[in-house]
Amino acid sequence: MKTQIKSISRLSKATLLSGTLIISGIASAVAQSSQTPVYQGKVGKTLADSKEWWPAPVKAPKGAPNVIWILLDDVGFGATSAFGGVISTPTYDSLANNGLRYTNFHTAAICAPTRAALLTGRNHHYVHMGGFAHTILSAGFPGYDGRIPADKGTIAEILRENGYNTFAVGKYGLTPDEDATDAGPFDRWPSGKGFDHFFGFLGSQTDQYKPDLVEDNAHVKPDGRHLSEQITDKAISYITRQQKVAPNKPFFLYYAPGATHAPHQVAKEWSDLYKGKFDEGWDVFREKVFAEQKRKGIIPQNAVLPPRNAGIKAWNTLSADEKRLYARFMEVYAGYLTYTDHETERLVSYLKQSGQLDNTLIFVVIGDNGASKEGSQNGDIDRSILVNSQSEAETIKYNLNKIDEIGTPQGTEANYPLGWAQAANTPFKYWKQDANSEGGTRNPLIVFYPKGIKDKGGIRTQYSHVNDLLPTTLEYLGIKAPEYIKGIKQDTLQGTSLVYSFDNAAAPTRHNLQYYYIFGSRSIYHNGWKAEALHNTAFFNPSRNIADTARSYEKDKWELYNLDKDFNERIDLAAKYPEKLKELQALFDEQAKTNNIYPFIDWDDVFKQRIHKKSSVAQSTQQSMIGTPPNQINK
Where does the record locate the signal sequence feature (predicted)? Predict the structure, then answer.
């Protein structure tokens, strides 16, 4: 008995006094392990004939770098100066000049599908995000229900189980509407998908000065500052706190500002930097960017600039009022993008000053799709125009009367005209949502890692996709994709690691097959060839007339391109090579079955049905959309 009492006494001094720490350590280890480990101690009748055991704490590989994924929104291939654009982005320029530029990188053509593919390393339909998590824009089929399954774990879940702290700030966009309240459930919030901390918004867009703001598992009141400033402060604070108590523990940060998605809102000190800079118009803009892209080696030297998209007027045919109005829209957009670059610079400067930058692997995806076509022909300031369906003349007059509100907290929508969207997408045709087109799916990628990138400023042309970033990160860190997460057996990854190309610009492409599908528009890439079909869904497309809508998928016109020789899809080869087209169409059908793309859904009809539903969920969703008209919901 005395022996037992002494043992208990020793236990109380040596162990119980730090019981909280020990219990916390056990909980952390269990939470981070893929499966509950087999107990390896000895349990006797007394402490004297027993042997204590705890699983070893999970640690990241020795010397593992911090990892930051930066994902911008609605930018366009030709907007940033880092990729030949005329909008100043010195931070992205610096990261690219000291890292790698990927010029043949692709997204899913719209926000939620891209983000789902990015975070899971799998195709968007395969993880059930063929549309959105919004009630109105999801459907009760495996590819469209908007709920990422637990057997398709995220990068945050994987890295947390391998000794990383995990943080996310900015736009999430993957939480179902009915779960996005403070009552939860929270398993589809960022905290339920592997992030230790989250600060940002759960939806697809938000006002930059009055955001629908969330911190961890609760909504919080915004402080009136621009959201980009708030998320940058929060990201720095998360890293600072973590490094104080665990300086040798790496972190993963997912930095996803709402910029440059509408509403385009930024302080006048930024938008006024571009006063008069766009008076020459979008045609001159495209020509300047195209020439600079050639000079920098971003595009082939023999490339030809495609004509303006259908419906876009030549700048020199516009009235003086139209030119003044449209130029101001672009000044605001450009200031918004430069300001976003500035906020990124604050994060990078903090890492440099704190001695962490050299051991930080940074991926910058400049846009989750092509530039946005959702601003209509004449631009949008506060949604009133699109809601009230005014004539073009009335729209221009209305916007001119409110020109000083563009970009301000009063300009609650603020999206530029379609002509600027195509200009921002130089050198491609078409734009966001168009999963058939490179203009909808091709976005710039920067990879920066001072300790590991040898070919600083190098350009990489290997075909790649947003689902490649997860396997790329894991391979570079020396971490294997887990067989289990939280006891749930994991499905196969579908992305292809890009590490093979880091030190070899001439390495053959390894990502040789990729489908795309958004709102009926679809395409399939295979070994340099691409077949594509535009489904003319006017309900989601303010640039097209509903009378022109091809309501039958069988009537959609398929086109064929050889991207190795015609990277921006100018020469349709469907008539010349009909067998190649049939081969790719059959391949798309195979991919559709494998990835849950079927059934094709006519979202025009779905939305019309659901907007009139009297259920509380539908009404709640409509409220959250603030009266968004049909061609704006897809944001």
Answer: 1-29
